Amino acid sequence: MAYWLFKSEPDTWSWDQQVAKGAAGEEWNGVRNYQARNNMRAMKIGDRGFFYHSNVGKEVVGIVEVSALSHPDSTTDDPRWDCVDIRAVKPLPRPVTLEEAKADPRLAEMALVKNTRLSVQPVTEAEWRVICELGGL
Length: 137
What we know:
ph1033 like fold; six-stranded mixed sheet; 6 strands
């Protein structure tokens, strides 16, 4: 299993909206960055990801799971853009802020810390464990 981080502005698509989609999940559409798209193309069903509120909050708030492999993004006719579907698994008991991640030396190399603009990022297994620990799991 691989691990990822999905960023969303909560006023555009929030954790609560993701949870409301239930087991069917939701298309992670609208991504227009080649690196983020390529990350989604590498995903497998069952991969886990952190759901991160960007701009407002700047914190990891929950865990999601990839529920559909990369497919054409329904929000565009441009064949260059793909997306995956994700479903909510569970909230973190305590959100982990960007500030906390930056302050933890174990996360110094994490994409979230080093490349804060990338909307879909890989997460190493070690980083996954640290964020889960900080979040109370």
